[in-house]
Amino acid sequence: MNAAVRVSARKHTVAVLRLTLGLSQKEFADLVKRSVATIQSIELGRLALSEELGEEIVRQTGISRAWLFGDEPNKPPVIFGQEPYTRKCFEEAQVNATKAVKPISRPNEYLRECVIFDLVHYANAITGALKSGEIARFRVKASTAMRALSGEFKGEDWAYDEAITPLSVKDLDGKTISRSEVDDSIKHLLNELLRRLTISQKPPSPASARSSKRPGA
Q: Can you say whether residue 27 is alpha, beta or left, with left for phi > 0 and alpha for psi between -120 and 50 degrees?
């Protein structure tokens, strides 16, 4: 281990990760573009790890997001898929992090892949909340996060119309909503989302672009 490494109490997964990599607090702070004071406060439990910083740590180190936010520093660090975390994982993450960000050539296909990974995290969180008896807290945090994303990336309200409106109408009529109807709404919503992500986003052809111009434009 680097002699310059400052060994703080292993009160947080950030401290465990940093020490695993053999980095000083300054080196780790520089890596994730934060101050040494911020890293110290997080490691000692005086400051909560934010979502933004957590995502940057995951991007720069390749560590599992679930492990990082799991608040169980006694567990050995792992990567996605629960494989042991090694120095090689860090080096590979650094290669990916330093690559020039290229425009996504096939955004629909990229987002289709993102859907499954996001659903995995959501499903894990739901079952974890159910097991710990913290359904209410999970619901508040999930709803707050989703509303924030929906507000930031404004789009059409098609999802609400597809899944919620039919159930709301039945509820207002005083009718009982069965579990199968809720299940059907979930399936319908996912199928519609995948259908919309399948629609190609090809740029208009030169001929159609010319025909769409207004006379005299």
A: alpha
Predicted structure pTM score: 0.47
d(CA 31, CA 43): 16
For residue 214, what are its two tokens? 């207004």
Q: Cβ neighbours of residue 47 under 8 Å, at least 6 residues apart?
A: 38, 41
- How many whole angstroms separate alpha carbon 133 and alpha carbon 124? 14
- List the structure tokens of 188: 């319908």
The tokens describing 61, both together, are 């180190």
**pLDDT digits 0-9 by tens, 146-203:** 888 787 777 667 787 777 777 776 666 677 778 888 888 888 888 888 888 886 554 4
Q: For residue 160, give the H/E element and its range.
A: none
Residue 157's Cβ-count burial label (10 Å; 0-12, 13-18, 19+) is: exposed
Q: Is the pLDDT of residue 3 over 70?
A: no
Rounded distance between C-alpha atoms, residue 115 and residue 150, angstroms? 15
Quote the tokens at residue 13: 């997964």
Nearest Cα residue to 23 out of 76, 60, 52 = 60
Question: Could you tell me which of 69, 81, 82 has the C-alpha nearest to residue 17?
Answer: 69
Residue whose tokens read 């909340």: 129
Q: Taking the chain, what is the end-to-end CA distance rounded to the nearest angstrom?
A: 68
In contact, 108 and 198? CB cutoff 8 Å: yes
Q: Which residues, at least 6 apart from 210, have a Cβ–Cβ distance to it below 8 Å? A: none
